[in-house]
Structures are given as structure tokens and as C-alpha cells.
Amino acid sequence: MRVRLRMAGGVAALAMAATGALADSEDPIVIPIHNWSSQIVMSHVVGQIFESMGNSVEYVSTDSQSVYESVRLGDVALEMEVWEGAFGASFRAALEKGGLHDAGDHDAVTREDWWYPMWTKDACPGLPDWEALNACAAAFATPETGESGRFLGGPVDWLKHDQERVDGLGMNFKVVNAGSAAALWAELGSAEKTKTPIVLFNWTPNFAEAVWPGEFVEFPEWVEGCDKDPAVGPNPDKTYDCGNPANGYLKKAAWDGMKDKWPDAYTMLTKISFTNPQIAEMAKLVDIDEMEPEEAAAHWLEDNGDVWKVWIN
Amino acid sequence: MSESALPLPSPAKPRLNPAWAILAVAVCLVLARPILPDALMRPAEILILPLADWINAFFTWLRDDLGLIHVTRAFADGIEWLLDVTANILYGKNRWPRLGPLPWSVVALTAACLGYWLGGRRLALLAGGTFVWIALMGQWTWAMETLSVIVVAAPFSVLMGLLMGIAAWRWHRVEAVMNPILNIAQSLPHFAYMIPVVVFIGVGPKAGAIVTIIFSVPPMIRMTLLGLRKVPPEVIESGKMCGSTGWQLMTRVRIPTARTEILVGVNQVIMQCLAMVVLASFIGMPGLGQKLLQLLQALKIGRSIEIGITIVLLAVTLDRCSKAWAERQPTHHEPGIGWGTRHRVLTTWAGLMVAGFALSALVPFFAEVGRGQSLSVADPLDAMMTWVIVTVDPVTQWLRWFLITWVLIPVRDALLWLPYTAVLALLAAAGFAVGGWRSALICLGFFGYIALTGWWDRAMITVYTVLVAVAVATSFGFPLGIWAARYETRAKRVLLLCDSLQTFPSFIYLIPVIMLFGVNDVAVVGAVVLFAAVPLIRYTIEGLRGVPEAMIEAADMSGATRAQCLRHVRLPLAFPTIMVGVNQSLMFSLFMVIIAAFIGTQDLGQEMQRALSSTDVGKGLVLGFAVAFIGLMADHLLNRMADSRRRALGL
Q: Beta-carbon neighbour count of residue B175 at 10 Å?
């Protein structure tokens, strides 16, 4: 597969030279990868498309928050998954400092909120309604939270305002923050073995949907200003008395210098747009079908030629 | 009976010891807590220094105004060029010289030959077997990515350590400056280093290599210095008598004589490099560490344990090989023997190389183990994990409830309840008791810094976790050490287990402890305990086994029972060594507590993690120093205690 792509790349490069177009630099395009599968596979998909266009590509693993500093400085060329909720703050901070820009949205929408696996419904049948959840808070109690239920939040630096929401809606829950996504899955995996009810932070698109079927808790719907204006939302005195937006953006980010250094690759990048099912499929190839990311990417490209070939031209 | 073995303690002076006076102040502060003004409870706002801002301003100035970034980037580019060469040879990255990748069979044969040359058949089996395991488990590329960085970083560290060690030996002023820096560097949490590296070097293999070098240099410097110091003057004299120049004296006399210590330093460098494999992948080091984090993220425990085993095997192989190299003495052949006989291993290796390349050209399996051909033990491992978790669930549920309700929350609340002034007075009293005014001031200085940073509460939570973990570790590690020290073979087996536990990547422990105890302090303490117990067990065994035979015999002759002998002879004599173990145990716990932030803590580690993800150099270093100072203070107190004990024993 790789050989074939490389040959195709050679042909493309020749064709480009013949038409006299401004060719991309021969330096490798450095693509950052993080520690969750959909992002890794998507990065490899894009990397392999770049290779098929005649570019050379390298991957480097980085932290998903500090990566924006690297994009800004040009150490890496782009970032494929900028989640509104999780990385919006880091992205905006880097945007202000300058050096990177928004390279367009994916079709996919992201949602991040309180979530439970299906077996939890046995202990709390009124779900997904948040008031029903609150009524059976005792089922989620742990030694460290005492009488209150425990909500297992993501790492504190994801800035999710769960505590504010608990206060705003007057819920009988305490927020315990896990230190990493891996810690969330470890708890979830161990809860599954004993079918313990659990409510935790989760998001979509995510591999967890395929492993553990579940649902988001339905909070009062997000209204603009709910996070700033106490008057908005059911509680007139508090902010964050609502759920997270159910359709957050998923962006691509690019280094400012990319446009000039690899004009063709850059143009392609701006056209890329993946949908939720496509992203879920990429994650599934690795997490369920046990492929290596490069293989999964090659496999996906082979199966979805009609999706990505239009981006090249 | 103990009185006869040990010199009598000097009679107590009638004068009131100031330590008691300071302790009384501390007690008064605790008793007066309800009426204490706020300023004595927690450092007042105006006392807290904006250290992070100052450091950030300094670094911005260094980077942009002084242009240091150009220097560091140029240096990094040089490293990157080297990394590209090794990467090409080992796993075929598309860079100059475009020769690689080497077939796995060739690498495995080379490792086996090297093992044979250094330590005979058993080492050959270990070295060759490790690489066969890697290939068959389908981890070849990742392992080579890791090694491609280590084979650049380790020699670089050795060279730098050697040069800096010589400089410190040669000029006292250099040593005086270097010593405190090394002390802090060795107790600074890894993450604190990484943030400046990201700023000055960027991310990727080069950053991984540089962070590995920074982390592994200090032991090399120390061992070089130690080795050069120990060279006997007679050797130097004879060197001088032969008319050696200064350069010759260094390269031909001093360094060869200090060979053993220097090679122990090399061994330490290699071990430190492997310890960084997983952590360095946070800033872009490719290979096993990166893969491990990805697998853990997807909760594939079985497969991450496989990688953990690989890292342990690599560490054990490299450790044994470098130790064998350190102990190896030059061989002298009879004159007149042919080159081929003198270099038998080398010729065999050359022959095997030809065979290996030919074989891998003919049978692709010997060049690269394809997917689907590789083995895996992940499924049975996962099944075992599930079984264990389900079986012990009732026990862990109870343990979790008991520890949280009756131990952890009370201890934590008590520490947070204490006024900071009382804690400072308490530490000063402890310092005074072991080392007079100087120690009291040192303790006060280290914790005073923490008070000034404004991270007091978080530091107390770190202290609480470490204290509980070390206490739990002592409660079982100490008896286990005594038990293991009884027989030589048992001691060896337990020490091997300790070694493996220590080199096993710490991140893997985090997931099972969460699955057993959930995201809470029990899991954090559980993960830390594993690391804290290892040095305790090791030094207890080594201390007890190091007691001179004559002493034990003397005790036997005076009719001491086994228990008496242990209590009155062996333990007191082993005490200084055991204290070293406690000291190391505290250090290991501090490192692990920071990593346990990935479980979920509210301590300095959590803030450190935040600083790393927002590349906040100032905050990272401020927190790093806070952690380092907790460690250095404990180190100082325990060293003082062990020293005075040692003096009392006349050792």
C-alpha cells in the first residue's frame, strides 16, 4: 500500500512540475499525534494523503494541550482535532499570541457532558433526565463523597465547570476529578466488571461509545450566556445552570507558515472535513479491530476513496 | 548485651536543648490555633512572591532578547542529525545514510555475541533472547525507535558527565557550584525539566533525547568525581615517574584506575535513560513509551504489560552487560597466537552477520516479523486482570472504605489543619535535634520557600500522601526485608524482584490500582507504596547481609537467640543502611506522587501537570523546586541521623 502511494506521489509530483505549479517544499510536513486513537488515525489518513500528493510526512507525539505552542512556532505544521470544549482555551490562547490560524471546521460536532453506561439505568431508571439522576444520588455514593453521589470529572485543566453546575442546579453530587482520560476508562472498565452504577465525564466522537454503550445525561438545554449571566437558565442566581452545548466545533489548526511552504498540502487541508461516523470508524479500526494506526489509515483510505479524492483536486 | 556491642552514648548535658524550646513554640501554636490570627495560619497575601512571573520574565529574556533559542535550536539540530542516522539504521527512517533498517535477526545475533563476549553463555542468552522476544511480540519498530534515541543520548550523557566530573575534580570552585545544582537536579520532578525543554528545543525525538540526557547526566558526574578522588597517590606517583604529561596522566593513569566507578556511572546513565522512556514520550520521544501511553489510554492493559516486560528486559540486559563490562579485566594472550584466535568472538560474529543478512534476504520473516505473525500474551493477561478485580472486589471495597474514612481523610485534614507557622517550628525543632542551628535553618529555608510560593496546602497534601505511603511501605517492606535477608538465595531472588518492579514503567501501575480502588487517594497511595517499598526492602536486605560475620558469631557465642541477635546486633548495625533505604523511599515516593497526578490528586503534581500542558515554565519550576525542597529537607534530616548513628557505631 505504502509503495503504491509513494509511486502515486512520484507521478503527482512530476505532473505538478510539468504544469509549472508552485511545488511544495521537500521538507517533511510534521504532524502531531496525541494519545487517543481517532486523532492518531485521522492524522495518519491526512499524512498518507499528503504522501500521495508527493509530500514527505513525519509524525511526532505531543501533549494535546501544549501542541498549540508547537504549531505556533512551526515545529509541527497542523493539528487535526481542535475540540471546542477540551482545547478551545489553549487554541484561543495560541491564536492570540499569533503564529497559527483556524483552518476550517470538520462536519463533525462534538459533545462533552455527564454520561453513564447503560447498566447504570438499572439502578436509576429515570435517566437520562438530570432530575432523576439527582433523585438517585445515593446510588452513586462512595466513601470519599459520603451521602452525596459522586460525579467523576475529567482532569481539572479541561476546565469543565462541573462544580459550578452542581451548585447552580442544587444537585446532591460531589465532583471528583480524574487525572487523565485513562483514569476515566479504568474506572469505567472496573465498574463494568461489577456492574456498579457510575456517572462520569465523556464525549463524542470517542472510542468508548463502541466499547461501552451509554447515554448523556439531559441537563437543561444550553442557552447562550448561561455561563456568564446568572439570569439565564433555570436558577436565577447562579451561572452554569445548564448542560454543555450539544454541538461544539471540531476544527483544524494550521501553522501560518504552512500556506507558503506547502501550498498544495495547505489547500487540501482546508478542504478536509470528516463526519462523526467517519471519525468513529477510524477509532474503531484501532480500538476494536486491533489494527495499527498506519494500517487503519491505509484501510480507511482504500474504503473511502470517494470521500477524500475530491479534496485533492 | 547491646551495651557491650555499642559504645555508650555520651551523658546528657544538663542545659536545656533549644530543640525542646522550639518544639514548645510549635506546640503552643497548635494549641492556640482557634485564636491564632490568620497571618500565622497561612502565609499572608503580601508574603507570597510572584516567583513564577519572575522566572517567566527571565526565560523570555533569555530566549528572545539574549537569543538563546538560536543556540539551543542549533544544538538540537545537531542532535537531530545524529538521531536521524541511528533512526535510519535501526528502523529505516528515510534519512541519510539510507541503509537501514537492519533485519531483526542480525541485531539479535549481534546482541548475543556482545553478551557472550562480556559475560559468557548466560548473558548471550539473555541479550539475544531479549531481542528475539521483541521481534516475536511484534514490537520491533517501537523498540528500535526507543533505542535509536538511547544510543545517542547515553553516550552523550557519558561524555558530558565525564567532562563535567573531571572539571569538578580539577577545580574546587566548579565542584562548589555544581554540587547544589546536582542535588536539586536529582530531586526535581521530571515534568519540571520538560517544560523548558519544550520551549527551547521543541517537541519530537530531539527533545526526548535532550530531556533524557539532562536527566541521566548527574549520576555520571558524581561517579566520575568519586572515581577520580579514589585514585591512590602511589599510582599517580608511578605515573609521574614514567614521565607522563598532564594529559597522559589523566587518560592513561587516572581514568583507567577510576574505571570501575566510571563504569558504574555508565550503568546508571543507561538505567536512567530507560527510566525516561515513557515520560519523555510526553514531549515527543517515539517508540515504546509512546505506544504504551496510547494503549493505556484505550485501556488495553494486557498489551501495555507486554511493552512493560520489554522495557524491563531491555533494562536488565543493558544493566547486566554494562556491569559485566565494568567487572571485565583485560585478557592477556600468549605471544605468537594468531589474530583469529585472539578475536574468536569477533570472527564468529562476522560469520554470523553474513549468515544473518543472507538468511533475512532469503526468508522475509527473519528481516521483519509481519503482522499476524507476531505472538501476544495480552488475552490471558487481560483475563487474569478481570478475574483478580472481580475476585478481590469485596476486599478492596472494604479496604477502600476503611482507609479513606479512618486513615486518609483524618491524616490529610490534620495536616491541613495545622498552622504553617507550627509546621515550620516543628521542622526547625527536628532540624535542631539532629544537626544544630545549621540544620534548623536549612529545614526552615526549604519549607519557608514553599510557604512563600503560595502552594502551601497543595504541598501539605503531597507530604501527606508521601508520609502515608512510606508508612504503609515500611509496615510490610521492613519485615519482608528481614525475612528475605535470612538466606542468601532468598535475598537474591527478592532483590531481582525489586529490580524488575523498579524498572517496570510506573504508568502501568496506575491503571490496575484505579481498577482496584477507583479514582481516589487509596489508589494514589497504592501506586506510590509499590515504589516506596522497593528501596526499603533492598536496603534492609543489604544492611542486614552486610553485618560482619564476626559480630554475629560473637552474638551466637554469648548465647543470643535468633531474635536477640536480630534485635540487638544485626538491626542496630544495619540501621545506617536502612536509613539510606528510607531516604530513597521518600525520594521515589515524591517522584511517584507527581506521576500519580494522572490518577487524580489535588497536590503539587496536579498543578505540575497543568503547567506542563500550558507550557508554563515559571509555574513548573516553582512547583518543581517545592517538590525538590521537600525531598532535600527529608534527605538532610535522614542523612544527619544516619551519620550520627554511624559515628556512634564507630563505622
A: 16
Q: Which residues of chain B are within 8 Å of residue A211 when distances are taken between CB atoms?
A: 299
**CB-based contacts of A219: which residues, under 8 Å, 6+ apart?**
A113, A114, A130, A165, A169, A242, A243, A244
Burial of B33 (0-12, 13-18, 19+ CB in 10 A): middle
What does the pLDDT look like over B172-212, one tens digit per residue? Answer: 999 999 999 999 988 899 888 888 998 888 888 999 999 99
pTM for the whole structure: 0.88
Q: Is B609's Cβ below 8 Å from some Cβ in A?
A: yes
If contacts are CB pairs under 8 Å, which of residues 78-107 in chain B contact chain A? 94
A vs B, Cβ pairs < 8 A, gives: 141
How far is it, in rounded angstroms, from Cα B563 to Cα B560?
Answer: 8
Whether residue A37 lies within 8 A of chain B, CB to CB, comes out as: yes
Alpha-carbon distance A67 to A128, whole Å? 35
Amino acid identity, position B599: I
Give contacts of B386 with chain A, Cβ < 8 Å: 193
| Residue found by looking up cell 556482545 in the block | B114
**3-state secondary structure string, chain A?**
CHHHHHHHHHHHHHHHHHHCCCCCCCCCEEEEECCCHHHHHHHHHHHHHHHHCCCCEEEEECCCCCHHHHHHHCCCCEEEEEEHHHHHHHHHHHHHHCCEEEEEECCCCEEEEEEEECCHHHHCCCCCEHHHHHHCHHHHECCCCCCCEEEEECCHHHCCCHHHHHHHHCCCEEEEECCCHHHHHHHHHHHHHHCCCCEEEEEECCCHHHHCCEEECECCCCCCCCCCCCCCCCCCCCCCCCCCCCCECEEEEEECCHHHHCHHHHHHHHHCCCCHHHHHHHHHHHHCCCCCHHHHHHHHHHHCHHHHHHHHC
Q: What single DSSP character describes residue B599? A: T
Give the nearest partner residue to A185 out of B205, B299, B601, using CB atoms. B299
Per-residue confidence in pLDDT tens, chain A, 313 aa = 444 444 444 444 444 444 444 678 888 999 999 878 889 999 999 999 999 999 999 898 888 888 898 899 898 999 999 998 778 888 998 999 999 999 999 999 999 999 999 999 999 999 899 999 999 999 999 988 888 999 999 888 777 889 999 999 999 999 999 988 889 999 998 899 889 999 999 988 887 877 889 999 999 988 888 888 888 888 888 888 888 888 889 999 999 999 999 999 999 999 999 998 899 889 888 888 888 899 999 999 999 999 999 998 7
| A207 CA to centre of own chain | 10
Q: Which of A35, A75, A157 sits opposite B297 (nearest CB)?
A: A35
What size, in residues, is chain B? 651
**CB proximity B292 to A under 8 Å:** no
Set of chain B residues whose Cβ sits within 8 Å of the Cβ of A144:
404, 409, 520-521
CA–CA distance, A241 with A51 (Å, rounded to integer):
48
> In angstroms, rounded to a whole number, what is the distance separating the alpha carbons of residues B318 and B325?
10
Residues in chain A closer than 8 A to B372 (CB atoms): none
Q: Nearest by CB to A177, which of B286, B600, B614? A: B600
Q: Measure A236 CA to nearest chain B CA, in Å.
A: 31
Out of A30, A67, A183, closest to residue B519 by CB = A183
Tell whether B386 is within 8 A of chain A (Cβ): yes
**Closest Cβ–Cβ partner in B400, B600, B613 for A178:** B600
Asked if the C-beta of B418 comes within 8 angstroms of chain A's C-beta atoms, the answer is no
Cβ A182–B282 below 8 Å, yes or no? no
Yes or no, beta carbons of B597 and A176 under 8 Å apart: no
Contact criterion met (CB < 8 Å) for B613 and A157: yes
The ipTM estimated for the assembled molecules is 0.83
